[in-house]
Each structure stands twice: as structure tokens, then as C-alpha cells.
Write a structure and sequence with these properties.
single chain; ten-stranded mixed β-sheet; 1 helix; Immunoglobulin-like; binds copper (II) ion; mainly beta; globular
């Protein structure tokens, strides 16, 4: 009896461990006047298992996509990607010039210091989980950081 109760609690604890995701340093680039598309950046670590970031959403944007930037024929190009792999224990950096979250058709102007809610959907062990975070609007040129 005691044993089966322990076993059950172990089973219930598994999905929580599998979805152990750490998200740090989330920020959104301050848009230039009239700009309706901005990039979102963060560091994300799946601590207990391989996982994938499969989508993101935000109340400030009509559409939110996962994007990748790469060089093609000497030109930086950006394209939507279906997911971002999160290998177990590795911190994946979404940063300018690389992987990022694209906030498209902003519903209101964003300015430096604003807080933007982001919801990340993560797939791990065939289960999806939602992670609510807050990203700060920053102007990397103003702070001297590109
Ligand atoms: Cu993009």
C-alpha cells in the first residue's frame, strides 16, 4: 500500500521534471517609429530533457513566429522555422543576428522600459507546456549593446 502510493507520486512528478525550463534575460527590441515588427530575445534551458520551443504568442502582436537569421550569398536573411531545438542541459540563446521570436503587427506602440508578456509553448516528452514570461523593451543602441 505504502509502496504503490510512492510509485504513484513518482509517476505524477515525472511530467513536471520533464518540463523544467529556465528562461532568462528576455527582452524585446524597441521599435523604430512606425515599425510594426520587432524581435524578441531570451536565453532558454531545458534542464531535465531534450525539448523544443514550438511556438510563442504575445498579447501585443497579431502574429508571433519563430525565426532564424543566416547568411545566404553574403546577405543576412530571416526565415520562419517550425521549432527551436532545446537540447537537454544546454542554454539556447535567442539573440540578434540568430534565432529570435518575431512579433508581427504590433497592436500598440512599444517603448523602452515597457513590459511585454510572452507565452512560450514547449514540447517535451510528447507533452506541451506553456511558460508565461515578461520581456522588457530595450533599445540596444541606446544602451551601447548591439
Ligand atoms: Cu524575424
Amino acid at each position: 500500500m505504502k509502496f504503490s502510493a510512492l510509485f504513484l507520486s513518482f509517476l505524477i512528478a515525472m511530467p513536471a521534471l520533464a518540463a523544467d525550463i529556465k528562461i532568462e534575460n528576455a527582452w524585446v527590441r524597441a521599435p523604430a517609429p512606425g515599425q510594426a515588427v520587432v524581435g524578441g530575445f531570451l536565453d532558454i534551458t531545458s534542464r531535465q530533457s531534450d525539448a523544443s520551443l514550438i511556438s510563442a504568442s504575445s498579447p501585443v502582436a497579431e502574429v508571433t513566429e519563430l525565426h532564424e537569421m543566416s547568411m545566404k550569398d553574403g546577405v543576412m536573411i530571416m526565415r520562419p522555422i517550425p521549432y527551436i531545438r532545446l537540447p537537454k542541459g544546454q542554454t539556447v540563446k535567442l539573440a540578434p543576428g540568430g534565432l529570435h521570436i518575431m512579433l508581427i503587427d504590433l497592436k500598440k506602440p512599444l517603448k523602452t522600459g515597457d513590459k511585454v508578456a510572452l507565452t512560450l509553448k514547449i514540447l517535451s516528452d510528447k507533452k506541451t507546456s506553456l511558460h508565461e514570461i515578461t520581456a522588457e523593451v530595450r533599445d540596444p543602441l541606446a544602451s551601447g549593446k548591439r
